[in-house]
TrEMBL record:
<protein>
    <recommendedName>
        <fullName>Riboflavin synthase subunit beta</fullName>
    </recommendedName>
</protein>
<keyword id="KW-0812">Transmembrane</keyword>
<feature type="transmembrane region" description="Helical">
    <location>
        <begin position="79"/>
        <end position="100"/>
    </location>
</feature>
<keyword id="KW-0472">Membrane</keyword>
<keyword id="KW-1133">Transmembrane helix</keyword>
Length: 101
């Protein structure tokens, strides 16, 4: 099919930063590395606080491993009840009304 039609390829995303100077960035990295080698750089206790902060602030978007075990057991019980109801419904439809009497 692809031989008969000219299928256009999607455009690739090319981000060109506006406010970025690679020379200045490389210079800052070199200066920081030299300061660390000489022991002049102060130790910072910086910790990234962004990672996971969205999930911590919401209740409905939490990952499954942080949800309590009670909800898992409730879900399993509901699933078992639904399966039993479906099996009974299938048996009723398959055998007819004689099953109840």
């Amino acid at each position: 099919m692809g031989l008969f039609f000219n299928i256009r390829k999607p455009r690739k995303f090319e981000h060109k930063p506006i406010y970025f100077d690679p020379d200045k960035e490389a210079l800052q990295q070199r200066v920081e590395r030299i300061k660390q080698e000489l022991g002049l750089a102060e130790k910072s206790d910086y910790r990234n606080q962004i990672k996971g902060s969205f999930f911590e602030q919401t209740k409905h978007v939490k990952p499954r491993d942080t949800i309590s075990g009670k909800s898992h057991s409730d879900r399993n019980i509901k699933l078992i009840v639904a399966l039993v109801c479906l099996i009974l419904l299938f048996c009723f439809l398959y055998t007819g009304i004689q099953l109840l009497f």
